[in-house]
## 1
Amino acid sequence: MNRRLLAIHAHPDDESSKGAGAVAFYADNEVHCALVVATGGEEGDILNPAMDRPEIVENLPAVRDAELEKAAGILGFGTIYRLGYRDSGMPDSAANQRPDAFTNAPEDEALAAIVRIIRSERPQVILGYDNQKNYPHPDHLRVHELGLKAFHAAGDDRQFPEAGPAWEPARLFAPVFSRDRIVRLHAAMLARGLESPLSRRLERIADGEDPRVDVQVPIDSTLTRARDALRSHATQVDPNGFWFQIPEEVVLDNYPWEDFTLLAASGSSNTDPHDLFGGL
Ligand SMILES: [Zn+2]
């Protein structure tokens, strides 16, 4: 079987922070990986003081696109599809109201675009987002809704007949952060006498939703690359940000996986807890 994976993301940099190590793992193992990015990330704040310069602020979309190309190359994505919508901004911000914002895109139009990509790439595994209970960014919610609808529509030849011959993907997963991962990494940092950057996050997730983990993909061989990809988003990522404060060996010794929730499946359920393609 020619294995193919399609990852659907909201903004440039999401591909490097959600499921990135798993994508690199599959790219290393002869899986063709393609990426859909819904928006240009126009509303992203510059989180890296070194990049907060006028020439970068003025050209943010082009700069972010170049960052995306670099990161996608590091992770092993073979193709990038840009849906071309505008970043909708944080909840209740003015950018939500713009007609070109992803959140305001007519559903049929956005869905047709995603279905067309699915039918052209013919992935067995799609990565989308869960219901975003812990981070309700309007663009992430839209990826959740449209990802689910596109997963089901792609295999139905009565829907979007102009978008190519039907293709039924087998599984839709969401990369998630389990409470267990945060708890274990936090404890491991303290056990080493290190200051844990996860204290605040730990408090926050105590009241949040703990996502169900169906598959854990090993990232022993790809964690370094996933971090390099994230660092490539130099405007968006503080190089001293909290994930980078956790030494790689702490991750590898304590939680060397990325977690995924199965959102939908059209065929056999997974028989391998460490493989998104297990049993296919
Ligand atoms: Zn995002």
Note: The CA atoms of residues 33 and 127 lie 11 Å apart.
## 2
Amino acid sequence: MADCPNLAGCAFVGYCNENDACTSVNGFIKIYCKSEKQNQCIRKRLCDQFGKVVVPKNMMPNGAPIPGTSTDDWSHEAKNHRKVL
Ligand code: SF4
């Protein structure tokens, strides 16, 4: 399967690389971004439905914040992704 079309510009991947905040980013890329599981990525699903403006950079593909980071400034859609998706 082709890589996620968002991979080149994915703010999560960029955030991890810039902040060294997510030691498992390569695992996430392998599991989600480069497989059909990309269709389960909460980031991708939010982006497809509401636009990338609602997707926080520190949201992991499973919808949780990167450990040690805050959800305080997350959009309504991001905070409530279980309800709105
Ligand atoms: S984290 Fe999600 S949106 Fe970003 S490139 Fe991977 S599958 Fe796509």
Note: The pocket of iron/sulfur cluster is lined by residues 4, 6-7, 10, 12, 32-33, 38, 41, 43-44, 61 (CB under 6 Å).
